[in-house]
Amino acid sequence: MGMIPARFDYRQAGSVAEALQLLASCDDAKLLAGGHSLVPLMKMRLVSPSTLIDISGIAELQGVTDAGSVLRVGALTRHRVVERSQVVAQHVPLLAHVAGLVGDPQVRNRGTIGGSLVHGDPAADLPSVALATGATMVVTGSGGERRIAASDFFVDFLETAVGPDEILTAIEFPKRTGAGFGYEKFVRRSMDYAIVGVAVQAGEQPGIALVNMGSVPRRADAASRALASGAGVDAVAALAADGTNPPEDLNANADYRRHLASVLTKRALLAAGYR
Amino acid sequence: MSLIGAKVLRKEDPNLITGQGQYVDDLAPAGCAFMAMVRSTEPHARIVAVDTSAARSMDGVLAVWTSADIAGLPARPSSLPGMDMPLIAGDAARFVGDIVAVVVATDRYTAADAAEAVIVDYEPLPAVASLAQALAADAPMIHPVLQGNTVFFQDYTEDLSAEFAAAPRTASLSLVNNRCAPVPIEPNVVLADWGPAGLTVWAAFQAPHHLRNTIAAFFGISQDTTRVIAPDVGGGFGAKINFASEIFLAAALSRALSRPVKYTQTRSECMVAMFHGRAQEHKVDVAFDDSGKILALKVQVTQDQGAYPDATGMGLPVLTTAMSAGCYKIPKVAVSWRNVVTNTTPVAAYRGAGRPEASYMIERVIDLVADETGVDPIEVRKTNFIPADGFPYQTHSPLAVYDSGNFAGALDELLRHVDYPALKAEQAARLADPNAKLLGIGFSSWLEIAGFGPPGSLEAFGHLASWESAQVRVQPDGSAIIYTGASPHGQGTVTTFAQIAADQLGIDFERISVRHGDTAVIPQGIGTMGSRAVAVGGEGVKTASTRVFERAKKIAAHLLEATEDDIVVENEEFHVRGTPSKSVPWSQVAWKSFQPLELPAGMEPGSLDATVFQQVPNFSFPSGAYCCVVEIDRETGEVEIRNMYLVDDCGTVINPMLVEGQVHGGVAQGIAQALYEHMQYDESGVPRTATLMDYLVPAAPDLPGYVSGRTVTLNPSNTLGAKGVGESGSVGAPPAVINAVVDALSHLGVKHIDMPATPQKIWSILRGSK
Ligand SMILES: Cc1cc2nc3c(=O)[nH]c(=O)nc-3n(C[C@H](O)[C@H](O)[C@H](O)COP(=O)(O)OP(=O)(O)OC[C@H]3O[C@@H](n4cnc5c(N)ncnc54)[C@H](O)[C@@H]3O)c2cc1C
């Protein structure tokens, strides 16, 4: 029970090309980035890949670059680096802020933004940032590069548009320099996953996205539309849980989650400067 | 200068904080094999077959045992006849976590793989997952020997119907004392090495001699060749006085395989296999008058024992009902209890063991009486307190004769720190402002029974005796080694016992070592539990040190050609009172104490060595007064503790830093029980909180800062005056927190909220009120 994963092989990839090659040649392999979502699942023996392909050393996938109208964040950039990046704080401040709220310092020093997005956990924080800001995922496979909008990226519970033989290489965030933002994360304990979370990005194309309000990370579509059309915070907040099918667990039933979604949306909107 | 009361840094820390502590898991003797468990995934099932063939055929697997392989061995010690917990379940599994098979392999990974390869064929049986289910008319039965699921029932000790009929007012309360998992950082770990010279067991355990005696009896071997070592132990909270089956299995397998066998519980196993605590339900009736004076109290405790009743678990409601009157002079108290089995993890001691349940109950009752009468909770407490001159005080229970205390004094000291009128005003202002958070103020005047204990008290739980051993042995260079049977697991005993000895011996604190935890080295012992280490074991160190010092004085007098009564010690020098120049250093006295030619007539060499089996005449009764201030978010229902004021009375304080550490840790666990932790099962008996993702142990950022005060009433049962403080926080905190939460919501007609007070629970109340 717990702790000891099943036997697996371990390979290191030095480049994206090598990683793709290994993926193609091993059956039932998994990419290993920060290991902070994958390894716990392996220890519980919920997944037992035959091979781990460690991509955490691939230099070309690290770091943040200013690419004009967007910030390009390498998939293997650690949460801690994102949290502390001056460029990110300046141009996509919501991302820097939320990266600093992921787990605890140990988790942020290991976990990567790419791993968090590809894992597709509806309770994770960063997918909501990608959705609220309208980010674009850059994915590479044997057939070359694909670009996927965040809104098309999260497919099902723990399932994203990244194919089994593909690698997420970067995430492009449109710059939101100077625009307001808000993030509300409701937890029982300080360093936990959100029971419900709400991300708000203000600006020309405002967006509201929800954490843990369904089986996939999702935008609050009705609320986002209302916001874009100039509705007030109460009206927008009232729409936050529209169309969601929130999970039920020991911390919160569906009703409570819907209620929290609207309370937190209002708070995040206020923090983002809306009235 | 006395070291009693000095904030001395812990002798233990340099080793522990540089990572050089030695826990059982750090040990790996040559040839060590590793054990892994196959545990029941069913709450209640007939075991039809266990297929071990695949596991057996794996490379590196040394043994796979099922119940058939332990046929010659007794059941887990401390079980109850007819309801024994087998080391390996045979005909049936009775809770999720019950051991069904055991695997030993050359490494831990292979052992885990082999355990996974064992196939168990279960035929599920109907299970009882809660007290309600267990006591239902047609409830499925767990142990055929029982008629139903009640192991023991004690009816009300007195009929109070006349008192209740005559009382101006009565009220009732139903309480759930939520089941908690102990969650020490170090789970159960054991290493057993059975060779031709005997058996050595290293175990994360709180009472090594108790374990040694039990292991020897279990296997029918001699105690002189059975050795138990508890090296550094990473917390226990009472759970490590339970005889975990794994310990006996490791020893049996080591014997069978002729090699050391080690077992380290995983956290997931620990959550379901290490015995739980609390798990009580209370039905309380109280009779009182308009002034809030309590006239009579009826308490009925139903104790969930889990699947296999344990001797310690059986004692929990005894302690709860003994302490049911708390700090109060209640003319009539009637108690009743029932021990019930369910298809859940067995329940036994957990920090406070029966007393937090009592203080929670009576402190909720006090606030209920305040609410019913409109008298302030402070006043209700003061009206009912046993007065400071009312000791000794014989309670309704023969077990509890309170020997000391000053309950009003502690509450007054608390109110020096708490600006109660200002808080009340703030509370009213916030209530009037719909955008403000609600404020709640909760008190608890708590009392516990500790310092176990007087003769007979621990024997009742299967221990050899209730004394504690202490040996003080001066070395030829004048340094000293203290040997104690009160083996610690994080308390700082090595430091406090050296402080006590330094004071009595006049030997420098730095030159006193404290050894513990090895039955081959320590002259017998009982262990650390029930807040007894200082109150009994520390007193023993004092007694033994005093004996040694008297003999040292004799030798010094002989060397100085003076009379013994004139000898004093200062800075490790013996001299004649008033004549500091005529002196002999401790090191000389120590050296010569081994040289027959240097000794006074009639004195034997090696006499600066004394062993004491310290007895105490009574339990001790630590007490205190806590205040908790909470803020409640009206939209989310979230409770935040804003302030926590703590006044403790543990008698003499040996080391204030360590006392604070104990109080803070205990209060943290109390807050955890009140707001976070709850070991839950679904209707079928499957645990719902078996990982630390779901079982919410709070972390440091979730806890408030504490403001501490102190009152001191001495423990009359020992000369130190110390009462013990290990469990106090967990006894005092839960009622303070819940009283505060109820106070914040009382304008909505709320009279009680069960622990833990989760945001969702509170949100439903707030929503319902709209
Ligand atoms: C104690 C703890 C607390 C946590 N708390 C939070 C929290 O509060 N909020 C939160 O959002 N998260 C939390 N996490 C999760 C953490 O953020 C993870 O680090 C993150 O979700 C996954 O990133 P990783 O780099 O560790 O990915 P890994 O675990 O290495 O991988 C996750 C999955 O993504 C795949 N993958 C990884 N990188 C790529 C890539 N570039 N291309 C394609 N596939 C890839 C892997 O194959 C795997 O399937 C917590 C984790 C822990 C252990």
Annotation keywords:
heterodimer, A: 275 residues, alpha+beta, Uridine Diphospho-n-acetylenolpyruvylglucosamine Reductase, domain 2, Uridine Diphospho-n-acetylenolpyruvylglucosamine Reductase, domain 3, Enolase-like, domain 1, 3 domains, 5-stranded antiparallel β-sheet, 4-stranded antiparallel β-sheet, 12 helices, 14 strands, globular, B: 770 residues, Aldehyde Oxidoreductase, domain 3, Aldehyde Oxidoreductase, domain 4, 7-stranded mixed β-sheet, 5-stranded mixed β-sheet, 29% helix, binds flavin-adenine dinucleotide
List the helices and strands and how they pair.
The complex is a heterodimer of chains A (275) and B (770).
Chain A: E1 9-12, H1 16-25, E2 29-32, H2 38-43, E3 51-54, E4 64-67, E5 70-74, H3 79-84, H4 86-91, H5 93-99, H6 105-110, H7 113-119, H8 126-133, E6 136-141, E7 144-149, H9 150-153, E8 154-156, E9 159-160, E10 167-174, E11 181-186, E12 196-201, E13 207-211, E14 218-219, H10 221-228, H11 233-238, H12 254-271
Parallel strand pairs in A: 1-3, 2-3
Antiparallel strand pairs in A: 4-5, 5-10, 6-7, 6-10, 8-9, 11-12, 12-13, 13-14
Chain B: H1 13-17, E1 33-39, E2 45-51, H2 53-56, E3 61-65, E4 92-93, E5 99-105, H3 108-117, E6 119-124, H4 131-135, E7 150-154, H5 161-166, E8 169-177, E9 189-195, E10 198-203, H6 208-219, E11 226-229, H7 245-257, E12 261-264, H8 267-273, E13 280-288, E14 294-304, H9 311-322, E15 332-340, H10 355-373, H11 377-384, E16 393-394, E17 401-402, H12 407-417, H13 420-432, E18 438-447, E19 468-474, E20 480-484, H14 493-505, E21 512-516, H15 533-560, E22 567-570, E23 573-576, E24 579-585, H16 586-592, E25 609-614, E26 623-632, E27 639-649, H17 656-676, E28 706-710, H18 728-745, H19 759-768
Parallel strand pairs in B: 1-12, 10-11, 14-15, 20-21, 27-28
Antiparallel strand pairs in B: 1-5, 2-4, 2-6, 3-5, 7-15, 8-13, 9-10, 9-12, 13-14, 16-17, 18-26, 19-20, 19-25, 22-23, 23-24, 26-27
Bound molecules: flavin-adenine dinucleotide.
